[in-house]
Amino acid sequence: MTDRAGTFDGVHRRNLSKVLGLVHLEGPLSRARLTVSTGLNRSTVASLVAELVSLGLAVEQAPDPTNRVGRPSPVVAADSNVLAIAVNPEVDAITIAAVGIDGRIPVRERIEVERLPTPEETAALVASVRDRWSAGPLREGRFVGVGLAVPGLVRATDGLVRWAPHLQWTDVPLRTLVEDATGLPAAVANDASLGAIAEHLFGAGRGIDDLVYLNGGASGIGGGLIVHGMPVGGAGGYAGEFGQNRPGIAADGDRRAADGVLEDEVSRSRLLAVAGLEHADEPTLAAALSSAGTRPVDDELARQRRILATALSNAVNVLNPSLVVLGGFLATIAERDLGALERAVAAQALPAAAEDLAIRVAELGEDRLMIGAAEIAFAALLADPLAAA
């Protein structure tokens, strides 16, 4: 579709996108609220809503009976049957979720693996799970795309996985593999970059225009950047690889990996080891560390927090964000003593850069990567509901 910006068709498509985007981001809204937010007149909004309903993208609900001021206005919501498949392949498990365009996650599965999954196996698994869901709990659902959050370098132009070292994937055409296996359009991006988008739109960073997000997962540490309200990917889409930076370690006794990078020192596998676990999802690891109450656990969390603080202070000096958001096992480290982490970052950062800084844990928890992956799967539909519906 060629968007002829000055034509009625072009304006109409943008208005449909505007209304669908609002109920996607904000949740159910009255027609009156949509009229105010879009700046369109009431009859135009009513017509756009009716068209989105006919396309199966929105539903109208009865107005809130407690709102007795003025004429009741019908409530418009994104249709929960419109779904994306979100996928996060990791070294120990592949997590797959169905995410509704209304933000809900009706089904989620973590499929543990005994060896590193290949790209072909990942694509086949996504297709198999989709077929099983379509025949079972999501038989009324309508899948519109697949979003994949990959722990590695993903080329922005075509979704080629250039390098996912922990998965041992190099130059993998993952988007094509998944599209061939599922028959659905697919999009691929770095997992931490998607976590940053999710937290910016729906979580701890909502309403914050300048933030740094760091994600801690089984494959190490990645990062995402939001600057002036926009995701920053860099020239090729590879920005935010904080885990590959050389950490500053003040105390020799804190070093565990000679000449190691940040993710060698601040490490999920080291936390699993002191907790006495071989495998665990995020809530299980966090609970095990919290309940352990042993000196080795406390010492390892404190050691990793000290090194993480130095890495964060460097990011604060370079980027001057107003917010740092930590997800995955980094959130677990922070939550153990958030005040100590904040003080350590402030002590090492430039005072002016850190004076208005806040540090928060990811509000979306273990759903953050699924929601971020769904966003790139919904992108085409949200941009042009007529073309993608």
TrEMBL record:
The keyword Kinase applies. It comes from the Bacteria. Keywords: Kinase, Transferase. Gene3D superfamilies: 3.30.420.40, Winged helix-like DNA-binding domain superfamily/Winged helix DNA-binding domain. One of its GO terms (molecular function) is kinase activity. SUPFAM superfamilies: Actin-like ATPase domain, Winged helix' DNA-binding domain. PANTHER family: BIFUNCTIONAL UDP-N-ACETYLGLUCOSAMINE 2-EPIMERASE_N-ACETYLMANNOSAMINE KINASE, ROK (REPRESSOR, ORF, KINASE) FAMILY. Belongs to the ROK (NagC/XylR) family. This is NBD/HSP70 family sugar kinase.
